[in-house]
Design brief:
Elements lengths: L6 E5 L11 E4 L5 E2 H6 L4 E2 L1 H19 L16 E3 L5 E3 L4 H4 L23 H18 L7 H4 L14 H11 L1 H10 L10 H26 L12 E2 L5 H17 L2 H8 L7 E13 L2 H7 L2 H21 L3 E6 L2 E6 L9 H16 L16 E14 L7 E4 L1 H4 L6
Antiparallel strand pairs: 1-2, 3-5, 4-7, 5-6, 8-10, 8-11, 9-10, 11-12
Helix pairs in contact: 2-4, 2-8, 4-7, 6-7, 12-13
């Protein structure tokens, strides 16, 4: 399985260890353990990477517990057995003890006050679900150098009923990841194992919750730190400790990056990876151009043309921002943007784009062609919208930009 660390072999006589103690030899993961990455102040692990790690680990455990091999609990405390490869994808290193012997009830080691006498549970998968819930909750809510004791071992009156999670932690998850994600982790941390989902169910729910988590996380980030989705406290895990001018420079660069690219593409570029093309099954596209633009170019100086476009596109940008649209590009007098791409709006993106089209037509009619030459009147535009599937990709390596490909972008209906 791609999210399980492959075993190369077994050694029985490792130098410095007692004889007849088997040691698994596994494939090396370039970034080491997840724990060491979280402690590394030079690395970043924002919400997109956290979500990828969550899905990778759930996939691995769903696969392992579906095998007919009587697997013992495979997850250790604080996800110590989780490692990251060079692409920051999680791989689970299955301990030898989970294959040959039961090491006691892992739930008992992490139960809050009042629950320590709970009868040991027998299901290895549900014990792993419990450790998964504890570890992933910590991953998404605790910053580097912050103790995790307040998440699970607070006063009994502050605990969620029947759950090894504090009320404040649940509220933080709900605010920064969405209601569905918070409920899922709450169920994973349930004291009663029969209340916990299986890993197959967790994988299905994570897949369904993906767009909601990204939308809530981005909104939460911009709401609390108006810079990037990588810098919000207790949500996007940033380990950079730069101060002063260096920190401001980094924030400015990140802000620009997230304006030019969707979050997933921006994260790949920040990590030095070339982003994979991504299909978008249904988006709405908007196109516009200026009526008589060629004639205007012959009458106005270049700086007057640039001023006209700046005044016009600034209005367009404000309307697009208010409707949470993604500005794809401008070429001369042509303006293109997309809905249901940056912020998921599967049921309303077409109506959203239609509202934008009417708004920009009205806005353009209020913008003078040349402020110093009022007899030229105001700007008139042609607009067209189209909906359908597209493929998004970054092409080339110079002056990179995010482009959309497909028939949806070719068929541009127009109206005066």
């Amino acid at each position: 399985h791609p999210s399980v660390v492959p075993v190369v072999g077994v050694m029985w006589a490792l130098p410095g260890m007692s004889e007849n103690i088997p040691v698994l030899v596994t494939e090396c993961c370039e970034l080491g353990s997840l724990t060491s990455v979280l402690e590394n102040q030079t690395m970043e692990l924002d919400f997109l990477k956290q979500l990828d790690i969550t899905k990778d680990l759930a996939d691995a455990l769903a696969y392992l517990h579906a095998q007919d091999m009587h697997l013992r609990p495979a997850l250790t405390s604080k996800l110590c057995g989780v490692h990251l490869n060079k692409h920051v994808r999680a791989k689970l290193r299955v301990p030898l003890t989970s294959l040959i012997s039961m090491q006691g009830d892992s739930d008992a080691r992490h139960q809050p006050p009042g629950f320590l006498r709970t009868r040991p549970q027998k299901s290895p998968e549900l014990q792993d679900v419990y450790q998964f819930g504890l570890g992933i909750t910590q991953l998404h809510t605790v910053g580097p150098g912050v103790s995790s004791s307040g998440i699970f071992f607070d006063k009994p009156e502050q605990m969620l009923e029947g759950c090894a999670m504090t009320t404040s932690t649940y509220c933080e998850l709900e605010r920064t990841r969405g209601h569905g994600f918070a409920v899922l982790l709450r169920e994973c941390c349930a004291i009663d194992p029969h209340m916990r989902p299986t890993f197959t169910q967790i994988v299905e729910r994570l897949e369904a919750l993906g767009s909601e988590v990204m939308q809530v996380a981005q909104h939460s980030s911009h709401e609390h730190v108006p810079v990037t989705v990588s810098d919000a406290p207790n949500f996007a895990r940033s380990f950079s400790r730069g101060h002063g001018a260096q920190n401001k420079c980094k924030h400015g660069a990140d802000s620009l990056l997230y304006e030019l690219f969707p979050a997933k593409v921006a994260e790949s570029l920040k990590c030095g990876r070339f982003p994979d093309p991504e299909p978008y099954p249904s988006v709405s596209l908007f196109f516009s151009d200026i009526v008589g633009y060629t004639d205007l170019c012959s009458k106005l100086a270049p700086e007057e043309i640039m001023d006209m476009l700046h005044r016009l596109y600034s209005r367009f940008d404000t309307l697009a921002q208010n409707l949470r649209l993604f500005k794809v590009e401008t070429i001369g007098d042509a303006y293109m943007c997309a809905s249901n791409l940056l912020h998921p709006e599967p049921e309303a993106h077409a109506a959203q784009m239609a509202a934008f089209a009417f708004s920009v037509c009205a806005a353009a009619n209020q913008v003078p062609v040349c402020e110093s030459n009022p007899e030229l009147g105001n700007i008139h535009i042609r607009v067209g919208i189209h909906a359908g599937p597209v493929m998004g990709a970054v092409v080339g390596f110079l002056n990179r930009r995010f482009s959309l490909f497909g028939d949806t972008g070719v068929c541009r209906g127009g109206s005066a």
